[in-house]
Amino acid sequence: MSILTVEPGQRSPELGLLGENRKRPAPTARQALAVSHVPLAISGTVWWLFFMAYWIPEFHNFPGGDFLLTQLSPLAAPGITTQGNPVVALQVDRSGAMAAYLLLAALAIPPLTRTRYWLARLSLMVISYAAVVAVVVSVLGILVRGQVQQTVLGLIGLVVWLVTALVTSWRSLWVDVNTLPIRPKRALWLLPVYVLFVPAPLAVGRWLFSPELRDAAVSVLDSGLTLRWAALLTPISLPLYLSGVMVGVLAACLYAYVPPRWPGTRRRTPIFFAAAALVTLLITSTIASAAAPGRVERLATASPADDVSFSCGHWVNDEMPGEPARTLIVTGARCDRATSYAGYRRTGGSPLDGSLLPIRANQPDETPITSRYVAALYDDIVVMATTTRLDARPNGLVAVRLSDGGRAWSFTCADHRPFGLRFAGGDDPADPAAGRITRVGEPDSINVACDSGSSRLDPTTGVPVAG
């Protein structure tokens, strides 16, 4: 039997299990809120990247863009980001339901961590538990499909999202709600960042007020460096951008006005800014919505010849009712590349095996041809004289189709010697200076005079014809 003796003036020790009465200090309000915005920063950033990539496809092929979006795809939800449409290949046949839940949960966590209602605070545990399930399902799906290397950044984001959400939920259970600060004013710095980062409000403007411009932009993405911006570099983009800015201002006013309000803030201030933003939004959105269909119609049906920079020559057939204009444009540093368009949409292209410009041609009777380039249009065929010689005399004929930019036929004299030529018939007006002269009763043809003799070529097939 043990005997405990206590000396006078000393307090007897308390008996019990080791650490039974040890109390862990409750988390401070600062600790509870320290990482509460991390899940929203992760999901919100990914949402914005995919949102802008979808609504402004002109930027989608930016160097490294596909790699970054593919890496972050586990955190992207096509259903609420891109109207259910995949932006990268890994999103095909994937609903993104787990990522959608994480985004909605990330929006709920910050306000719930500041609420003084315990029932609402307890819901953080439910949200975090469901987030664990969502992350586990997402990770297992990536493992099963063997996409770990393609989505490393996304996996890291999922882990950080989950850890910070769990930490926030656990700390929020023990914090003294009376010490919680009000919503920070510093969050409003996001508004000038949003305004200055032009693609963000422009994407919002397209989404809300002219979604048809997005489809028009997609149709011209493969139309060359100049025309791929045809749906963006237009006066309509300014009211669309301003509309998106006003939507951001309204969101900021809502954030400033909803309770709990900041001490010392006048109640009328957010309402004043919101009213001004709403009036501006009505004006700019009306202008953009009214002008967008006309721009879409132009991109679908008009010829892009005037918008292509540094072109060497072009031919347009816009006389087909109900059909977009068909255009053939020659470009390149050596004027040796022909590209065809239906409206502003590229339909094909082919090399010319020679240069359209500069050229010094003569007719078969040695009459000089003084036009800038030597060519003629025959229905769907453009026949062009090209040269590979230092003296710029023509030594090749190339026929290219307007419809698909493909080569119909080509012709050269023996040993690629220079020749004289004359165009008869065709759809272009007669012009002796351009070598287009049609004699009475003469069919559509190209008269070529080589050193070995003259030939008359069918403009459709390039086959010599009698006459």
UniProtKB/TrEMBL annotation:
Residues 1-23 are annotated as: Disordered. The keyword Repressor does not apply. It comes from the Bacteria. Keywords: Membrane, Transmembrane, Transmembrane helix. The chain crosses the membrane at residues 32-56, 95-112, 124-146, 152-175, 187-209, 229-258, 270-292. This is Uncharacterized protein. It comes from Microlunatus ginsengisoli. The lineage of its organism: Bacteria, Bacillati, Actinomycetota, Actinomycetes, Propionibacteriales.
